[in-house]
Design a protein that fits this description.
52% of the residues lie in helices and 13% in strands. With 367 residues, the chain is of the alpha/beta class. Strand 7, helix 14 and strand 8 (298-303) form a beta-alpha-beta unit. Helix 11 runs parallel beside helix 12.
């Protein structure tokens, strides 16, 4: 019925249906043309427009000169950026940030993701070819050497956390900076949702260079903290944490797929880890965590999840295709994780609400 031209013409004559039809037409047009808005955002960031206007209003001529563009080209970019609320005019010559631009300017994690996505765009240039060729094999998989190995069954050169440190020899060093930039926003959601003060010793598995642990330490300085990651990553974490005044964090080197987990913790965190890995790896890790936790110990699973109300496209469209291109893992619903936790032997598991579930959702399981 919705595809019928006759029904469409009839619906436009009824006021309430006309409003609904216009809403859906605008939304569909946004899906069709969304790539242009994304590229407009990328251009505004790369041209220095966002960073410049975050300091003070500026003229079109000044912005054009700084970006190496002719004034007509900058006028066209600013008009496009205005249409998606990145910038707005102060007067006939000067510009300032719009509401979205102002929120973006201070979000270092989002700015780093905009830069990182340039790799993903290359893989998505022909999405059917990407899907036909099987998981991985493109630029994103090459960037994520450990994920590619996990997805193909080849020996893993690295085995770090989801969206973590990957090949610490330099292959994913830029992405380490991305996650260090974005981790505080995720940590804020988790720290607001769970009472870390009830615990005495926390182990962060796949903790990279300790960005999440540093945020935890800032709010709970009395909590004993440990990190587990690949030996080379753990070594880097020691130096990074020491430089931040957190030399008391114990850093353990090892692979969570191949080695025993260090004991002694009554709280274990998996922050943006599991959706990077396939079901067999995830199930084995959950079972391993359950075995090392004492009775009453807690496991925190924090990551974006499929089926998030209001952010469904983020789960199955964005992460679904991202992880396919990466060569490992898949988006999972909270219900899927709860089932895996039961299979791993956890006595209880439940989801705890976070302020921004699009950024991260939180599951707390009890041994």
């Amino acid at each position: 019925m919705l595809s019928s031209p006759a029904f469409q013409r009839w619906s436009m004559r009824i006021p309430v249906f006309r409003m609904i039809a216009r809403h859906h037409a605008t939304a569909m047009f946004g899906v069709i043309t969304g790539f242009v808005y994304t590229k407009t955002l990328t251009a505004a960031v790369d041209a220095g427009v966002i960073s410049a206007l975050a300091q003070a209003p500026a003229t079109t001529a000044a912005l054009a000169k700084a970006a190496g563009l002719e004034i007509p080209a900058m006028q066209r970019l600013l008009a496009a950026a205005r249409s998606i609320d990145l910038v707005e005019p102060v007067d006939a010559e000067r510009w300032t940030l719009g509401q979205r631009g102002a929120a973006l300017a201070s979000n270092t994690g989002a700015l780093a993701m905009i830069e990182h996505h340039k790799i993903f765009y290359d893989d998505l240039a022909d999405p059917l070819a990407m899907l036909r060729s099987g998981r991985g094999g493109g630029k994103l998989a090459a960037f994520w050497t450990y994920a590619h190995a996990a997805g193909t069954g080849a020996p893993a050169s690295d085995d770090d956390a989801a969206f973590g440190q990957g090949n610490v020899s330099g292959g994913t060093a830029p992405y380490s900076a991305l996650m260090a930039a974005s981790q505080p926003m995720v940590a804020q959601q988790v720290l607001d949702a769970h009472d870390f003060g009830r615990h005495r010793h926390m182990l962060d598995i796949g903790g990279g260079h300790g960005a999440f642990l540093a945020e935890v330490a800032g709010r709970h300085p009395g909590l004993q903290l440990s990190l587990f990651d690949l030996p080379a990553v753990a070594e880097g974490a020691r130096a990074t944490l020491a430089a931040r005044g957190l030399g008391n964090v114990t850093c353990h080197g090892g692979s969570f797929r191949d080695d025993a987990l260090p004991g002694g913790a009554d709280l274990v965190s998996l922050v943006r880890i599991l959706h990077d890995h396939d079901d067999d790896v995830v199930q084995a890790l959950l079972t391993k965590v359950r075995a090392m936790l004492p009775k009453g110990g807690r496991l925190l699973i924090a990551e974006p999840m499929a089926g998030t109300p209001g952010a469904e496209a983020m789960g199955d469209a964005y992460f679904g295709l991202y992880l396919w291109a990466m060569g490992s893992g898949r988006p999972r619903t909270a219900a899927a994780y709860l089932a895996m936790l039961r299979a791993a032997g956890f006595a209880r598991a439940r989801e705890v609400a976070t302020g921004l579930p699009m950024v991260t959702r939180l599951i707390v399981a009890t041994a």
